[in-house]
Design a protein that fits this description.
- The chain is of the alpha/beta class.
- It has 2 domains: 122 residues, 3-Layer(aba) Sandwich (Rossmann fold); 53 residues.
- It contains 5 helices and 8 strands; from the N terminus they run E-H-E-H-E-H-E-H-E-E-H-E-E.
- The strands form 2 sheets. Strands 2-1-3-4 form a 4-stranded parallel beta sheet, with helices on both faces. Strands 5-6-8-7 form a 4-stranded antiparallel beta sheet, covered by helices on one side.
- Strand 7 and strand 8 form a beta hairpin.
- The chain binds FE2/S2 (inorganic) cluster.
């Protein structure tokens, strides 16, 4: 039987005061956007911690969008500026997890911008569809239980490598020497990851995966 084409699963965190209303307007205006998006309503874009984004991306989501009020319109004054600051941390964490930057987007959508909401969701769906499934698909979940996608397929290979039958994922950096790799290894292990090292080219690469039952990824980023 022919395999169904990949359909990404996206999470959109939408602030209550602007973007969620914008999403609502898209619906009531009958503006079409892909059904791949699961909306989570939050009071403000600034309350979405980077760990929530990484948890979504390592537990089944292929892409995450945070939507908030335009700068200057946040109902908590500076929440969206905080979200913008957190984006920098999220971008770094994506690299550490071996995930492409296009899997995350921060977008401003006002209550009157139903069409913009639909457009952002269409663009994000297309971008993530082109990337393929998150390499964490089918691997994460509580206790490391697998999931696959809605069509029941196994996880895509992704930037990973098997160590004794368990797939770990390459982080974004190349470490120049053993001491540098050891420091990074310690940080990962303290954050609840299992780690393997591999000499590659001119340096050392680390392959990591959150240990079953370990703490949430991301350490103490605020
Ligand atoms: S209330 Fe919308 S971003 Fe803060």
């Amino acid at each position: 039987m022919a395999e169904a084409p990949f359909e990404p699963m996206l999470i959109a965190f939408c602030c209550n005061w602007c973007s969620y209303t914008g999403a609502d307007l898209a619906g009531t205006s009958r503006l079409s956007y892909p059904p791949n998006v699961r909306i989570i309503r939050v009071m403000c874009s600034g309350m979405v911690h980077p760990n929530l984004v990484m948890d979504a991306l390592t537990h089944g989501a292929d892409g995450v969008v945070i939507c908030g009020c335009h700068p200057g319109d946040c109902h908590y004054l500076e929440g969206n500026l905080r979200a913008e600051k957190r984006k920098e941390a999220i971008d770094l964490m994506l690299g550490d997890f071996g995930l492409e930057p296009e899997r995350f987007r921060l977008a401003w959508v006002s209550a009157a911008e139903g069409a913009r909401f639909a457009e952002v969701m269409r663009e994000m769906t297309e971008a993530v569809r082109a990337l393929g499934p998150s390499p964490y698909r089918g691997q994460a979940g509580p206790g490391g239980a697998g999931g696959g996608d809605a069509a029941g397929r196994e996880a895509a290979p992704g930037p990973g490598r098997d160590f004794a039958g368990r797939r770990l994922f390459r982080d974004a950096r190349t470490y120049a020497d053993a001491a540098e790799a050891a420091r990074a290894r310690t940080e990962y292990e303290q954050a609840g990851f299992e780690v393997q090292e591999l000499a590659e080219g001119d340096g050392i690469r680390l392959f990591t995966r959150r240990a079953a039952g370990g703490p949430a990824p991301g350490g103490s980023v605020t």
